[in-house]
Request: fold
Amino acid sequence: MREVVTRFGREGLGFLWVIGEPLAFCIGVIILWSVIKPEYEHGIRVGPFVMTGYMSLLLLRHLVTQALSALQANVGLMYHRTIAPLHVFVARFVLEVAGTTAAFVVVYLILLLLGQVGLPKDPLLLYGGWLILAWLSAGLAMVISALAIRFEPVERLAQLFMYLLIPLSGAFFMVSFAPPAFQKFLLLVPIPHAVEMIRAGIFGEFVETHFDPIYPIVWGAAFNIAGLLMLRLFREHVDVE
Reply:
């Protein structure tokens, strides 16, 4: 609740911006792509394709960007012995995952009412892919944030890193779109596995997908463990003045 009030205030839409912000971005991108692209690409409607990719990208980016300022924005709480840096990160992660998930549901319902997409073909696969993506993104966010605490240039380079990650994230392409010789290299990046799971859960067997759920889970575990260890080591470098 403190995170909601601190970031969005008590006036106007307030906490509804948790949903409204990612929702506005996603709808804007869907409208833009619907104007400049044909109705179908590789046999998939543009609307649902953009929705699944862009909402996945938003989840990743929001977790990373909000984690970068997590400790400095809540530095006063660090004086309390019962509050650890992990508590601050968990609060931000829960807020971002909840807001982006709610926005995903709203966009999905809009497209469903417009006849652009049907009901998920495999809801468990959809939920699994989304949770794995959140797990992986949270771990990556903690690693980058911990490095930014210790090495100041990392915070400035983080945004560049996120932009460079877009072509490899699977947000605006599917592995099956790439030539077979390049598919195995794309699948070395763990993020497309989760995005492919989300699309497989929605589109079913009518769309060719490539993923291994264990691969991003292992990467997420490695990121989370490394992030926790680095946060513990670098905590003394947090500027509390």
Observations:
- Residues 2-237 form one domain.
- Residues 85-113 form the longest helix (29 residues).
- The chain has a mean pLDDT of 81.
